[in-house]
UniProtKB/TrEMBL annotation:
EC number in record: 2.7.7.7
DNA polymerase III delta subunit-like C-terminal domain span: 207-321
Alphabetically ordered keywords of this record: DNA replication, DNA-directed DNA polymerase, Nucleotidyltransferase, Transferase
Keyword Phosphoprotein: no
Name of the protein this chain belongs to: DNA-directed DNA polymerase
Alphabetized InterPro entries for the sequence: DNA_pol3_clamp-load_cplx_C (IPR008921), DNA_pol3_delta-like_C (IPR048466), DNA_polIII_delta (IPR005790), P-loop_NTPase (IPR027417)
One term under GO cellular component: DNA polymerase III complex
NCBIfam families, per the entry: holA
Organism: Glutamicibacter uratoxydans (Arthrobacter uratoxydans)
Length: 330
């Protein structure tokens, strides 16, 4: 007799607040989207308190405090991260909570896998938790489905050829693929066809605008220039590269000197939590005056690549060298 397959769980897009929710899988981007969605759904309730816990750095009693009612709230949404690295304090308190979970609360836990805390995982599943599939999307068909769903959710039309072209260009990283979908949705109007995707991401199977921008911001001028030249040499339009540089530097400016948690900043800044976290890491050591200078340089570069200069490639190289030169030495 064939062994029954384990329940892979529902899609993160289908999840709604429930007393127990277990996100299972190593794809941090999908987990972050699930957390973000549940956080947004719960934000409409004035009586709910939101708390984030780290199971690895957990202190005794934190879960009890986070799941208890107070003068300010009658219900709680509690996010638990790093469940695969939980310490003994969290294991003990979580097992105790599962004996009598409060039905008005929403407890969301992300488990990336492994053998640590298997007793707790079994207990969570046995308590009737909603299982959410956060496993990596390895097949192109899965990524195509993801992109199609992104545009459907935004009520935007994209052709099948355009979807396939986008996956081929930036499909190696799901986070980058999601960001690319957001950029196309925000920066374009009407139906998106393959010509639009090629204009933004053509020739980016190996060399991407995001890699160029990230390398420049990190101060790695050689990698940024090498990646840029390869991208331009394979047909990438310089305009989306400048747009990506501008977006990444603007994100630096938004988070620079702000120490609030990424989850809290995300809604204020109009960014996804993972984008805030990445920008916060990249912003360490940057000076506000240097970021402002980079913004001005990118604006000049944008003018030059759109017809204001004779050599868009040279203008881009100059901008990248300028940004990399301003980056803090780590």
């Amino acid at each position: 007799m064939a062994r029954a397959q384990a329940n892979p769980g529902i899609s993160w897009r289908q999840v709604t607040p429930a007393p127990l929710i277990l996100l299972v899988g190593t794809e941090e981007y999908l987990a972050s989207r699930a957390f973000e969605l549940l956080r947004h759904q719960a934000s409409g309730r004035e009586d709910i308190q939101q708390t984030r816990l780290n199971a690895q750095k957990y202190e005794p009693g934190e879960l009890l405090l986070a799941t208890s009612s107070s003068l300010f709230s009658s219900a709680n949404l509690v996010e638990v991260h790093d469940l695969a690295s939980m310490n003994e304090y969290f294991l003990k308190d979580a097992l105790n909570y599962l004996k009598d979970p409060a039905p008005e609360n929403v407890l969301i836990l992300h488990y990336s896998g492994g053998t640590r805390g298997k007793k707790l995982i079994d207990a969570i599943k046995g308590a009737g938790a909603v299982i959410v599939n956060c496993q990596p999307l390895k097949k192109d068909a899965e990524k195509i489905e993801f992109v199609t769903a992104e545009f459907k959710a935004a009520k935007r039309r994209i052709t099948n050829d355009a979807v396939k072209a986008l996956v081929a260009a930036v499909g190696s990283s799901l986070a980058e693929l999601g960001s690319s979908c957001s950029q196309l949705i925000q920066d374009t109007t009407g139906a998106i066809d393959q010509d639009v995707v090629d204009r933004y991401y053509g020739g980016r199977v190996e060399a991407t605008a995001f890699k160029v921008a990230d390398a420049a911001i990190a101060g790695n001028a050689q990698l940024a220039l090498r990646t840029l030249r390869h991208a331009l040499g394979t047909g990438t339009d310089p305009i989306p590269i400048v747009a990506t540089l501008a977006m990444k530097v603007r994100q630096l400016a938004k988070v620079l000197g702000v120490n609030e948690p990424a989850a809290q900043l995300a809604s204020e800044l109009g960014m996804a939590p993972w984008q805030v976290q990445q920008a916060q890491q990249q912003a360490r050591g940057w000076k506000r005056s240097d970021v402002a200078a980079c913004v001005e340089t990118i604006a000049q570069t944008d003018h030059m690549v759109k017809g204001g200069g004779k050599s868009p490639g040279y203008a881009l190289e100059h901008a990248i060298l300028f940004i990399a030169g301003k980056a803090p030495r780590r």
